[in-house]
Amino acid sequence: MTFAMSSALSLALTLCSSAAIALVPGAIAAATAPTISPAARQVERLAARFYDARARFDPLLYATANGDGRYDDQLGMAIAPQVRARYLAQNHALLEELAAVDARRLSADERLNRDILEAEIRSQLDLERFPEHLLPLNHFDNVPSTLANYAGGTGSQPLATPAQYRAYLSRLEQLPAWIDQAVANMREGIRRGVVQPKAITQKMLPQFRQLRSSDPQASVFATPVRDMPASFGDADRRALEAGYRQAAARIDAALGRLVAFLETDYLAAGRITAGYGALPDGAAWYRARIRNNTNLDLAPERIHALGLEEVRRIRAALAALAPKLGYDPLDAFPQWVAAQRRFKPFSSDAQVLERYRALYATVGATLPDYFTLLPKARLDVQLEPALTRATASDHYTPVAADGSHLGTFWAVVNDPKEYSTVDMTTLFLHEGVPGHHLHAALLKELPLPDFRKFFTEHPSAAAYTEGWALYAETLGKEFGLYEDPAAYYGHLNDELLRAVRLVVDTGMHAQGWSREKAVAYAMQTLGYDEAQAVNQIERYMVWPGQALSYKIGAMKILELRERARRALGPKFDYAAFHAVVLGAGTLPLPILEARVGRWIATAK
Prior knowledge:
- By secondary structure, the chain is an all-alpha fold.
- The chain has a domain at 133-280.
- Helix 14 (424-431) crosses helix 18, helix 17 crosses helix 21 and helix 18 runs antiparallel to helix 19.
- The longest helix is centred in the middle third of the chain and has 36 residues, at 234-269.
- The chain has helices at 38-57, 59-62, 81-99, 108-125, 143-150, 162-192, 198-211, 223-226, 234-269, 282-294, 300-321, 333-339, 349-366, 424-431, 436-445, 450-453, 462-478, 485-510, 515-526, 530-542, 549-568, 574-582, 589-603, and strands spanning 379-383, 395-397, 407-411.
- It has a three-stranded mixed β-sheet with strand order 1-3-2, with helices on one face.
- The two termini are 27 Å apart.
């Protein structure tokens, strides 16, 4: 299959108005112009209200995780039915007010701002009819574990000053009420038949047991007290020590109630099915999840077919590569690579980090040949915290807008002696540069309003953010990094994973596949052992549609690049294309396509 999608996957511009799309990198110049029109000022006010409402609704996801520390003392109660209803009503009101703005009086940049705001408000309303709040916890993404990971001060929430300590303590003090609300929601979920699979509850239980501590001073949530800087004054020290001990004791009691409920009522009510199709109104729910994660109304069966087609294409490329690594048949090729000790040279965690930092230097020297837009903020490379290392995937957390912490690539190293070099290049290109860090750090430096500056973690951004990161992996070929057959194998193998996701995600949620069938397919196609396959499949079970965003987004960016290359011929330039794709921040795919199309027409 070529990089261009088939007509069945062509992107209808359902989210974009007929307004002209800004062509220059860095949008919203008019936002700072002294002669801004009343219509543009109204859009600005609506955008500010929208962002503030969204950040207060779920400050962990929409603010802290995106590098906005202004709400670090708030936990939010997004799962409370009355809070959710009030927030959705606010979004309906904002959408009505936005519709009343005369778009004819907006400049191209201002219309772009308006169109993205409309798309974002609609994305908040996409799932309104579905009881998302009745599934408040899973093993892959949950508030108690997120707060526990922040306790070391190396995550998205900094812990270096007394004010930052008090902000985090405030969140801890709000956690017991959040846990009790989650239990109430799950009880309602049992009544309505909206529950997690038993396998997911069985994965959650060890996490929440591990978070418990009968000794408040030994609690993971009291870690900041044990790491308190010597520069803190005596009064701050005493108050914070007492506050953290009390919060840790209350959290332990709340976790005790949660664990007891999960062990008995919830586990007994758990379903044996894997997909959302088994839930009430599940088929429509999953279709909405697809729209929310890809910005497109794509039929699950079409995505499934696309996944199978991509699996065949990538496996053919792997078969051609195998002899270059000294292996002939394709069968058991991944297992053979995994068994090669020559690809596992590490004896310590530090050596793994050193290798990534050397790779950062190599890639950094190449970037100026392909990018004119580069962030000033540097990337940090750290090890995934021990609490979540067993179930986590390698990931990135964005740089803070105020510079209080760096953008960080978190490498999951469970055993350095078994850590393979074959995946490191493509993984770094995805999570670091030119992938997530280049994009997310640029967002903080471009002159964008807050609702766009802090727009990376919401599902509606996934097709762009994850699509860009997967596209960034393909640039390893242009950079000359895949001349090493082992590194190219790592890239193809990771691309195969993204194709497999299209198959198993739609298989479980739309075609009734069992967890076991999806695990078997992943093992057979990817060469994973059972533990690896289960880790991936159970992620897709609790996060339906998100895994589709990588391939859908990347294929669209590659399609647009090929369209530009064909149209512009020798005038095509990588740096100019990348500036158009990145220069206005995160965009819904239909708006991105329109933007690139207008750039091509102008560049001709």
